[in-house]
From TrEMBL:
SUPFAM superfamilies: Domain from hypothetical 2610208m17rik protein. Residues 83-230 form the C2 Aida-type domain. PANTHER family: AXIN INTERACTOR, DORSALIZATION-ASSOCIATED PROTEIN. This is Axin interactor, dorsalization associated. Belongs to the AIDA family. Keywords: Developmental protein. Coiled coil: none annotated. Signal peptide: none annotated. Pfam families: Aida_C2, Aida_N. Acts as a ventralizing factor during embryogenesis. Inhibits axin-mediated JNK activation by binding axin and disrupting axin homodimerization. This in turn antagonizes a Wnt/beta-catenin-independent dorsalization pathway activated by AXIN/JNK-signaling. InterPro entries: Aida_C, AIDA_N, AIDA_N_sf, C2_domain_sf. The lineage of its organism: Eukaryota, Metazoa, Chordata, Craniata, Vertebrata.
Length: 233
C-alpha cells in the first residue's frame, strides 16, 4: 500500500511512512503468544504425520497420552480426501466400501481418529490413490463410528491376484505432537462380496506384504464394513 501510494499521483488517500512504522511492533511480535491481542490466541502445536514404521522410533507407549486431552472436540482436522466413484462401464464392477465403525478398548481416548484406505498388490505397492476418511464424528462405548463410503478407484476385475485393501486407523498423540497409526486391517480379494463384513485388527507397523501379522487384541473388537458392488449389464 505504501509503494502504491508513492507511485500513484492521483491518489486521494496517502499511506504515510508514519503509518507504515506503526506496523513494525506488530510484525516483530506476531509469532509471540500475547494473551491480550486482541483475544486469547494460544498457539496450537504443529502436527507431524509420519510414514508407516517411522513412528516406531518415537511411539513407545500407545496408552500414555490418555487423559484430559481425550475429551477435546476432535473435528479440527481436514475433512478427508475421499474420491468420487469411477464412471461405470458395461460389464465392469465397481466397489463401494462403507466403513461403519471400529472397536477399540480405548476408543474414547483417541483424538482426531481417521482411517487411511489404500489398495496394494502382493508386494505392498500402491495400485490406487490413497484416501483418508474425515475425522470420526461419534464415539460410543468401545466403538468409534465413521459411517463413510469409500469408492475403490479400480475396477474389481482389474485388481491383480493377491491384492488387498488396507485400512489403517490413525489418531493424534498430543504429547508427541504427531499422528500415529494405532492398528490396521485388510480386505483380501476373496472377501469382496456384497453385504456386511467384520475383519480383524492387527498391531502396527502396517505389514503391506502380510507376512508378519499379529492380532491387536484377543477381545471381540473388529473393523465393521459394508460392501456394495455396482455393475452395469
Amino acid at each position: 500500500m505504501r509503494s502504491a501510494s508513492l507511485q500513484c499521483t492521483q491518489s486521494m488517500e496517502e499511506f504515510k511512512l508514519e503509518d507504515l512504522k506503526k506496523l513494525e511492533t506488530i510484525i516483530e511480535n506476531i509469532l509471540t503468544y500475547n494473551k491480550e491481542f486482541p483475544f486469547d490466541v494460544q498457539p496450537v502445536p504443529s502436527r507431524k504425520i509420519l510414514a508407516p514404521g517411522e513412528e516406531e522410533d518415537l511411539d513407545l507407549d500407545d496408552d500414555e497420552d490418555a487423559g484430559a486431552c481425550a475429551s477435546e472436540a476432535f473435528a479440527s482436522r481436514a475433512p478427508g480426501t475421499l474420491l468420487p466413484r469411477l464412471p461405470s462401464e458395461p460389464g465392469i464392477t465397481l466397489l463401494t466400501v462403507r466403513i461403519e465403525k471400529i472397536g477399540l478398548k480405548d476408543a474414547g481416548q483417541c483424538i482426531d481418529p481417521y482411517i487411511t484406505v489404500s489398495v496394494k498388490d502382493v508386494n505392498g505397492v500402491d495400485l490406487n490413490p490413497v484416501q483418508e476418511t474425515p475425522v470420526a464424528t461419534r464415539k460410543e462405548d468401545n466403538y468409534i463410528h465413521f459411517c463413510v463410503d469409500v469408492e475403490i478407484q479400480r475396477h474389481v476385475e482389474k485388481l491383480p491376484k493377491g491384492a488387498a485393501i488396507f485400512f489403517e486407523f490413525k489418531h493424534y498423540k498430543p504429547k508427541k505432537k504427531f499422528t500415529s497409526t494405532k492398528c490396521y486391517a485388510f480386505l483380501e480379494m476373496d472377501e469382496i462380496k456384497p453385504g456386511p463384513l467384520v475383519i480383524e485388527l492387527y498391531k502396527k507397523p502396517t505389514d503391506f506384504k502380510r507376512k508378519k501379522l499379529q492380532l491387536l487384541t484377543k477381545k471381540p473388537l473388529f473393523l465393521h464394513l459394508h460392501q456394495t458392488l455396482h455393475k452395469d449389464s
